[in-house]
Amino acid sequence: MMGETDQDEAKVTLAGAADAFLAKGPLRGRTVLLVHPAWHSCGSHQVFVSQARAYRALGARVLSLAVADAPGANEGSRAHKAYFAATEDLECDARFYTGMSLISVLKPSFLQAVKGWLHGNFAGILVASTELAPIPAALAATARIDLIHCNHFFCMPAALSLRRGGPCPVLLETHDLQARQYALRNEVGWTLPPAAAFEEMLAIEQAAMRTADVLVHLNDEEFRIFQKMLPDQRHALLYPAVAPIEAPARGTPSGLILVASANHANFLSTVWFLEKVLPAAPEVPVRIIGNIDREIRARAPKLWRQHEALFCGRIDDLDAAYGEAAGVLLPTIEGHGVSIKTIEAMSSGAPLIATPLAFRGMGLDPVEFGNVALALKAEDFAAAMRRACEAPPPQGIVLAHGRSGSDTRKAYERIFAPEAYQEALRALVTPLLPAGP
């Protein structure tokens, strides 16, 4: 572990380096295209936002192509307008959108993919959807693209169609081993038997990955897995940048918050919290923030009726919610890859109550963090919740006015802050580009 003095020196050095990079603009004159799913209100979207900001900070002109994954969500559709309205934080020089038309569902390639989808082959239908999504004319007419940074394997058909003649490296950011996620979804969801095998979906994922020049991985577990699976590919470990939560104290913090977006792992974790943890700490005030409310309402209606009052949905001022809370809950029992919401919570400096799985893939030992209470069992998690809300706070719990110096905030600044990400990204991409703009 670095000592406090070493950490402070590293921060000063990093800040000075970042200023130097901005002044020189190492990517000035370059055009970078980000290709990504048309998703919002999730951890992946925050990664896309961070990519755009980092490339622009390094001097590049940044274009974005959002690829919808549903038939009929094509350019000019209601889905297109809704997506743009929900993603104003994606700061690019020009933004484009595409998706397959509704009539394209009749094409033989898509009908074949639908047969697989009925058996749970999500990998196949996502690739088929992207292959049928036309490139917007204005983007196709772009004179020069120097680098393509693609997110998720199923967006690679769009990325490759925009690769110009000559050197135009394509990076593929993998965002976890997706076949594993699809196999998990098939274990609890409806499919026609037999369910698509993990190996079948993995083969589709790997085929797309082999077309990239560099595979970029968000966490150390993913990095090791793909290195072993695809030893002939070039791999890079690039922890994501997450915008910090700036949560100034507003009086005495009270109550606990749980922040979660609507994905399957968060659904399972929230159900575990409501069914196993909360009954052991019914007196503790809790707010559940984020669009996980729609998943609970749709898939666990009984739990929704019992706990509807706890759910706040999406809120405008998330920083304030962190600042007003006595602690943040991370009851993670499922999931792979780095958890964006964990990094976000770390940046707030607030006391955290978490399962060990919340810190997966980070190369960190949360036992060493003074503002983290780890609990694997439901009863231990509930006990930590009760302690966090005691008055006065027990010794060792970081108060709001001291959160900027907490252990998790220091780790965030060292690894996941935008400045750290910019330097790592610069070191990765500049050797890939030919000399001169």
What are the SSEs and their pairings?
Layout: H1 4-24, E1 31-37, H2 43-57, E2 61-67, H3 78-86, E3 94-98, H4 108-118, H5 122-131, H6 137-140, E4 147-151, H7 156-161, E5 170-173, H8 178-188, H9 198-209, E6 214-217, H10 220-229, E7 235-237, E8 256-259, H11 264-277, E9 286-289, H12 292-299, H13 301-307, E10 311-313, H14 318-324, E11 327-330, H15 340-348, E12 352-354, E13 372-374, H16 378-388, H17 407-415, H18 418-429
Parallel strand pairs: 1-2, 1-4, 2-3, 4-5, 5-6, 6-7, 8-9, 8-11, 9-10, 11-12, 12-13
Keywords: Transferase
Protein name: Glycosyltransferase involved in cell wall bisynthesis
GO molecular function, one term: glycosyltransferase activity
Describe this structure in words.
With 437 residues, this protein is α/β, with parallel strands linked by helices. The protein has 2 domains: 20-241 and 417-432, Glycogen Phosphorylase B (Rossmann fold); 256-415, 3-Layer(aba) Sandwich (Rossmann fold), CATH 3.40.50.2000. Helices cover 43% and strands 13% of the residues. The protein has 18 helices and 13 strands. It has a 7-stranded parallel β-sheet. It has a 6-stranded parallel β-sheet with strand order 10-9-8-11-12-13, sandwiched between helices. The longest helix has 21 residues, at 4-24. The protein is globular. Residues 1-23 and 394-401 have low confidence and may be disordered.
